[in-house]
Amino acid sequence: MWGRSRIRCTIQYFPLIRFEKAIPYLYALALQVCRKYKISLDELRSGSRRRVVVEDRGSISWIAVKELGYSGADVARYLGVTNSCVTRFVSSGKKPDVDDLVRNL
Q: How many domains in the chain?
């Protein structure tokens, strides 16, 4: 029978199991954006409101949802922002300058 500690451990790691296959591609995309715009990955995922960081998150959101087919919720979870933040970036109507980033994936 399952003990409390095993159930707690399973519940604790369940989101990592579900989201595991999306991480490598979003991680590679995030690294490319960080190199291009000269910011750190920690800052990108921290929730910072600096203009440069917000624009970079918008680029990642647009590429991941429009070009790679990820759901906005998966991208938001990876970036550490809300779903509405990613939705606003994607539905803004203007495509960021990301052609070279998409080709390099």
A: 1
